[in-house]
């Protein structure tokens, strides 16, 4: 008789966004006249840029003619888009071989799928608070998880604890939910720890395009990272591809464990279980890497970052402690008056109609914190912050 993967029974149901939706619905029902300003969403809102639409449209028309129709493509991505990604990395001084880059349908799938390469008896180190995907995908495999406390004392940037042996380490920088970003020295400590302990770092760079200063955008900017890190990136937040779906994962040839190149294993895994991203989407993505595309994308990111600045300026004015907002679309603030995050959620909604995300939904260390996102419109962000000031001044 069939028996199921019982590890799935250990996954905690997440009611975070459904609980939020239910509370907002109840509030709207009781106060239909009150305006709701949504600053909780982790999804982009600006449309795809012109350059992406141009390439996408061209590809759609190609698919409609026998001479230019495309069937199955290479599982790991077309050469044209891998060349673009390679060029993009080179701009930041990171030199990659073309076949170290794997095109995917997004960072979330690859972050989960990569675990196929690792035995289930590895110990996993995950920061708390965290993007829930890292935790749940490891629970599904039954791996032992240790949490690295991310808190006000360390600026939500935990550093390696040399007394702990962690085999698989997750780092997300700029971070979701905290918006905190590691600097070079801090990332070097993680890279050195991983190389010394024979660990692998799974580096989530989904928000790298929001970095506007000297903070590293890729872990490969750190010496030694190619022997200990896989990097996951995505056009979701960079180019508004959350509904279009394309990402890329870098597996350097220098990554060897048990005398096996992980690049070979990942290629085998992808060619076996994945049939590639659609031609139309890969072409559309090409439009994000052209000079026009890059400048159009920069405009969208600048729009979000201006919103983030409106939020952080308000926090500065009100003396509210926070991380993020500078190189990130997220502002992670300490709830005023020692409120717990759900209590603050209710209070803020009742008084202002502003909806954010309670930090407790991202882990224990989020209990007194709250996430606001810059993905709203500028007008709504200004209005929300005006209400914030009236409430807490
Ligand atoms: C949004 C996000 C991603 C991107 O996921 P996609 O599957 O590429 O849309 C990856 N990591 C984090 C932390 C994110 O917030």
CATH C-level class of the largest domain is: Alpha Beta
The helix/strand series, from N terminus to C terminus, equals: HEHHEHEHEEHEEHEEEHHHEEHEEEH
Q: Which small-molecule species are bound to the chains here?
A: pyridoxal-5'-phosphate
Total number of helices: 12
What separation lies between the terminal Cα atoms? 64 Å
Q: Can you say what the CATH homologous superfamily of the largest domain is?
A: Type I PLP-dependent aspartate aminotransferase-like (Major domain)
* Strand adjacency order, main sheet: 2-8-7-6-5-3-4
Provide the helix percentage: 25-40%
Strand content: 15-25%
Computed CA radius of gyration, to the nearest angstrom = 21 Å
How many domains? The number is 2
Question: How many strand elements?
Answer: 15
General shape = globular
Q: What are the segments in which pLDDT stays under 50 over at least 5 consecutive residues?
A: none
Q: What CATH architecture label of the largest domain applies?
A: 3-Layer(aba) Sandwich
> How would you state the average pLDDT, rounded?
97
Topology:
Layout: H1 16-30, E1 37-38, H2 50-63, H3 79-91, E2 101-104, H4 107-113, E3 123-128, H5 132-141, E4 144-149, E5 168-172, H6 184-197, E6 200-204, E7 229-234, H7 236-239, E8 247-250, E9 256-257, E10 260-261, H8 262-273, H9 279-289, H10 291-317, E11 322-324, E12 330-334, H11 341-352, E13 354-355, E14 357-358, E15 369-373, H12 378-392
Parallel strand pairs: 1-13, 3-4, 3-5, 5-6, 6-7
Antiparallel strand pairs: 2-8, 7-8, 9-10, 11-12, 12-15, 14-15
Helix pairs in contact: 2-9, 3-9, 10-12
Bound molecules: pyridoxal-5'-phosphate (PLP).
């Amino acid at each position: 008789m069939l028996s199921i993967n019982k590890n799935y029974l250990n996954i905690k149901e997440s009611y975070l966004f459904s609980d939020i939706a239910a509370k907002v619905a109840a509030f709207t029902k009781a106060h239909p006249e009150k305006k709701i300003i949504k600053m909780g969403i982790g999804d982009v809102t600006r449309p795809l840029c012109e350059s992406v639409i141009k390439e996408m449209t061209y590809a759609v028309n190609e698919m409609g003619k026998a001479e230019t129709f495309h069937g199955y493509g290479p599982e790991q991505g077309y050469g044209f888009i891998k060349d673009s990604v390679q060029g993009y990395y080179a701009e930041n001084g990171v030199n990659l071989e073309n076949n170290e880059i794997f095109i995917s349908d997004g960072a979330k799938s690859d972050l989960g799928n990569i675990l196929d390469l690792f035995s289930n008896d590895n110990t996993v180190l995950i920061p708390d608070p965290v993007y829930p995907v890292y935790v749940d995908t490891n629970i599904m495999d039954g791996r032992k998880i240790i949490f690295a406390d991310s808190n006000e004392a360390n600026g939500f940037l935990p550093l390696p604890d040399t007394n702990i042996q962690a085999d698989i380490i997750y780092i997300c920088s700029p971070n979701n939910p905290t918006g905190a970003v590691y600097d070079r020295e801090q990332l070097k400590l993680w890279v050195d720890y991983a190389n010394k302990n024979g660990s692998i770092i799974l580096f989530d760079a989904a928000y790298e395009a929001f970095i506007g200063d000297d903070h590293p955008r890729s872990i490969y900017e750190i010496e030694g990272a190619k022997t200990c890190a896989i990097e996951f990136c995505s056009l979701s937040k960079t180019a508004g591809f959350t509904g279009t779906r394309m990402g890329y994962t870098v597996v350097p040839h220098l990554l060897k464990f048990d005398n096996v190149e992980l690049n070979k294993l990942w290629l085998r895994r992808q060619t076996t279980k994945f049939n590639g991203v659609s031609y139309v989407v890969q072409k559309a993505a090409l439009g994000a890497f052209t000079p026009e595309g890059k400048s159009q994308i920069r405009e969208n990111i600048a729009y979000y970052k201006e919103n983030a600045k409106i939020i952080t300026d308000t926090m500065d004015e009100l003396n509210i402690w926070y991380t993020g907002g500078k190189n990130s679309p997220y502002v992670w603030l300490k709830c005023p008056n020692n409120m717990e995050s759900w209590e603050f959620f209710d209070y803020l909604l009742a008084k202002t109609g502003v909806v954010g995300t309670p930090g407790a939904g991202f882990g224990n260390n989020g209990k007194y914190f709250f996430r606001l996102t810059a993905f709203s419109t500028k007008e709504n962000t200004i209005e929300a912050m005006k209400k914030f000031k009236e409430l807490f001044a």
